[in-house]
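User: quick one, fold this
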Amino acid sequence: MPFSTLRGFRDYPPPDAAARAELWRRMRQVAHRCGFQELETPSVESLDMFRVKSGGDIEEQVWAFDDKGGREVALIPETTPGLARVFAERAKSEPLPVKWVTFSKLWRYEEPQAGRTREFSQVNFDILGVPGIEADVEVLATSALALDEAGAQGLYAFRVNDRQLAEAIGLAAGARDLLLFFHALDRRSKVTEREFVADLQRSGVGPEGVAALSETLSAAGSGVPAADATAFFSRWTEPPLPTPGPDGLARLRALFTRIEKLGLGDRVIFDPTVVRGLAYYTSTVFECYAKKGDSRALFGGGRYDHLIELFGGPPTPACGLAIGDQTLELLLRSAGRWPEGEPALDTYVIAATPEFASEAAVWVQRLRVAGIGADSDLMGRSMSRQLREAARRRARRALIVGPQESARGVVLERDLTSGAQRELRPDEVLPPA
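Assistant:
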């Protein structure tokens, strides 16, 4: 009987699997270049570990089950709890700061849609032990470089805010329920103005507060460029915002000043509606958006300064960002920048007649041992079909072995771009040792 993938899961046949591997290779190189060390955690963890971080509601999204020992376990829906567990175990011996990168496959039982599957991959950049904005900027700068190397340069922007600033703005507007206020801000770009006002009113914001917020958000527009952010922040200095607003403003001023100095002002903007839905974020938060298209966040992160303590570790400031494969693929495909897949083959060795298939295989092995990508026909095809296969594999050259070449003690090399041919002695085929 025929089978197909389960809903929310995908196959990645050639060349897409290799294209994805190429993206991760580029990002891995960036991570190493920026001083991040790789961390790998199990794909199955205790369900309680995710309850500690996100509460009981997490069970609606995780693939949870009882193992044969009767323990409640889950396929991991995110990497951060595993990272927190590992650091808590190693905190006394781990030198600070910690800069970890993880490449993980994750599972969430969500409604599948464009850019969201039930099985996906993610790269996380996390820095632990740095209380200042230096870590926030480092995570943003590294993520920007990783996205650029992946092919997304010019396609994205990071929208940055501070939860403490958002909290103070809500208090100044009269919000009595900050969670509802954050929910209203988060939904602002997805609902009508009437629905947004109704959300604000449910959080306790009165008519004057609604008017003041609407004016601020209108002034911010689709985001305040880094170069203009400091001037924009002056609207909250007189009169000053209630606590903890001034601290949030100070962090953002310092962050945007450094962002400008690093030359990242074209891809980092201030957006007062970014709050992130997860309750464990403590101050700086950021989301990545496509510069063109809808306003849905591609991915994001922020500062989570109290999470390590929940896992039995010491108080440890922390900051991180996660890049998901599904939304990144959509972004690159929409711009025509998806990688080709398997790299082009250097050499395709062709047997002019079936009797020379074994000699072709010998040359393939020699080339591979010498570090050169090489392949040959395994199907007993004609020479013309072998040449077509070499072209399909985007080989740089073909090496032809056959009775005429053997009689002269040579191998025929054909450049598959220009068609130029030349005879090579066996010692000329391989690169110098």
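User: anything notable?
Assistant: The first helix runs from residue 16 to 33.
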